[in-house]
Amino acid sequence: MKALLVGATLLVVLGHAQAIVGYNYPDVLGKSLLFYEAQRSGRLPSTNRIPWRGNSALGDAGSNGEDLTGGWYDAGDQMKYGFPMAFSTVVLTWGLLRYQSVYVAAGQYNYALDGIKWPLDYFIKCHTSKYEFYGQVGNTNSDHSYWGRPEDMTMSRPAYKITAAAPGSDLAALTASALAAGYLAFQNVNSTYAAILLQHARDLYDFATTYQGNYVQAIPDAGTGGYGGWGYNDEIAWAAVWLYKATGQQSYLTAATTTYYDSNTPGFGVGSMHAGYKLLLYELTGKSNTQYSNEVFWYLSYWIGGGFPYTPNGLLYASDWGSLRYAANQAFIALVGAELGINVNAFRSFGKNQINYALGDGGRSYVVGFGNNPPVYSHHRAASCPWPPATCDWSTYTNPSPNPHVIVGALAGGPGIADNFTDSRQNYRQNEVATDYNACFTSAVAALQYLKQTNQY
Ligand SMILES: *[C@@H]1O[C@H](CO)[C@@H](O)[C@H](O)[C@H]1NC(C)=O
Ligand SMILES: *[C@@H]1O[C@H](CO)[C@@H](O)[C@H](O)[C@H]1NC(C)=O
Predict the structure, then answer these.
(1) CA 135 to chain centre
(2) Hey, CA dihedral for 395, 222, 60, 194, is it positive or negative?
(3) Which of 5, 25, 151, 250 has the most CB atoms within 10 Å of its CB?
(4) Is 432 among the residues known to form the active site?
(5) How do residues 48-79 score in pLDDT, each as one tens digit?
(6) Which phi and psi angles does 89 have, rounded to 5°?
(7) 266-276 pLDDT, tens per residue?
(8) Looking at 37, 60, 74, 77, which residue is catalytic?
């Protein structure tokens, strides 16, 4: 009885400590970076930390044989979609720039730089001339009819590009924003590399504005994949703000505040950068223009204040496909907005609640390899495949065993409206993992750790 009581006391003490200490955000940050490492395509460096991943897609090439190896596989599949890749890269870099001290304190700064350099190097390869950019490698249908290791792929992987005759302003501009943000991240690390990034950013921005169009018209297969067709002025404005931040050149600021400015503010995510450029404009113009902050305030207040339902355990529920991603995207915007003084308490607690939901407050962890009862059947081909030479095919897909490899740090799509979640490999709406799902999530986790570090949590 005594031992039991001691045990109970200990539990109470531990419970109390958990309440004070909360989730280990630095641990989540490190794990999320590991997820991006597991998504790497191409020839892996000797520093690769994912033992079950090897070289893959070494034949990825442009129509004139240009080397297009590298980049990230998009999600549980092995497509290289440039548009969400650019989104993830710029959002991760935005978080790294804002919360560098968090990454440094967590021992993750060099991993984070390495992490963003992987897609940045790929974007440079894809930019084969000023007005030519490869926005995709792999065909959606042939990729999606395959279940197996990326290292074993044999299907043809066509490359698709935008050109002056078949432009894609959304793709070119979003990639320009990632490269301009990359310039800022690398300017004090390797100025030669940073200068290369900035030149590509400028040229892609010129491409986006000189030859205007929606990239899905040039690359319809990206639409098959579900990424595109949402207009391009927001990506141009967003790229312009990043280029202004990188260069101080007034013409970029003018483009963002006038030519490409849109007073509507849809939810933030792949294809919708409105809230992002408004926050950056608000900050860069010294918080003098409240139009920018008001438009973010209105959209976010609508999203979190009745525009969408919440699950019983508190998740903002915008879609049954990847519910956590929409919540994490708005959480990150809310946390940055709060830092800039916009509706501080409400936005901060919204951001905290949504991220903590994913980490365990929702009843379980939705981050693979982290916390209580995380998913073990993620819809992810590479993680589902046993070590070679064992076969990996569609029978692996329906195999009732958990994934033999843990896709550490990946955020699952998320639960249903009733906090209900089926941890099954076939459940791609709830249990796929994706580079864009993890992007705002990672930066929001860094934002929360920053609040702790500065005693504002
Ligand atoms: C800096 O970047 C350039 C261009 O990518 C590269 O050639 C060089 O090796 C880098 N320097 C260091 C010290 O990493
Ligand atoms: C979750 O619960 C809701 C409401 O009961 C239901 O409509 C939905 O189909 C469930 N989703 C899953 C994936 O079980």
Answers:
(1) 17
(2) negative
(3) 25
(4) yes
(5) 999 999 999 999 999 999 999 999 999 999 99
(6) -65, -45
(7) 999 999 999 99
(8) 77
